[in-house]
Amino acid sequence: MNIILFGPPGAGKGTQSDNLVKDLNLYKISTGDLLREEVKKKSALGIKIKSILDQGVLISDDIIHDLIESILSNKGYFNRLIFDGYPRNFNQVKHLDILIKKYNQKISCVLSLKVNQDVIIKRIIGRQVCSKCGLVFNEFFNPSTKENHHCRSEEHTSELQSRTNLVCRLLLEKKKTKQTKKKDNNNNKNNHNTTRTAPMTVDLT
Question: In whole angstroms, what is the distance from residue 183 CA to residue 180 CA?
């Protein structure tokens, strides 16, 4: 079973992916994780990726394609993948379709997470990471307490963004996701031998 999971920033894609990994014995593919792992390896590609990231430039689809293919070509992950937030654009959709067919696999399910926008905003602006132990908390939903935070460090790093910038990012991501799914569905209609399926919305509100 291969699953694609869509959703705006803060929707909980990572959390839901981790749950599905445990329940269904899947392997999670997150492009962010793949990039960090490659940099950590200090491979030729990893050094190139680090150089690009240090410049604050977006990683090209070609590099992402190579990383995705390295996973899909691994027989140990055959038909047991969950794609966390990938593909992000139509070019990636087309390339994933090519790779899925190349390695004789299929997409079993496409899930789109639906979460109230106010909840997403609180998840992002309320996120705090302990500078000592690395535990993650949220001042709105899971604040640091004596019971859940034994090191009790008062030093936290917060991922704060202005409400205006955050809403713009959410709206842009929502628009991009709709465009990707629309083009993907149109491509399905024109391809009777498609290896993909229409997305199903999961309401987490």
Answer: 5
Contact status, residue 200 vs residue 111, Cβ threshold 8 Å: yes
pTM for this predicted structure: 0.69
Of 107, 83, 89, 111, which Cα lies nearest the Cα of 180?
Answer: 89
pLDDT tens string, the chain, 205 residues long: the values are 999 998 887 888 888 999 999 999 999 999 988 999 999 999 999 999 999 999 988 899 999 999 999 999 999 999 999 999 899 888 999 999 999 999 999 999 999 888 888 888 788 778 777 877 778 888 888 888 888 888 766 655 554 444 455 555 665 666 666 665 555 555 555 554 444 455 555 555 4
Rounded distance between C-alpha atoms, residue 45 and residue 39, angstroms: 8
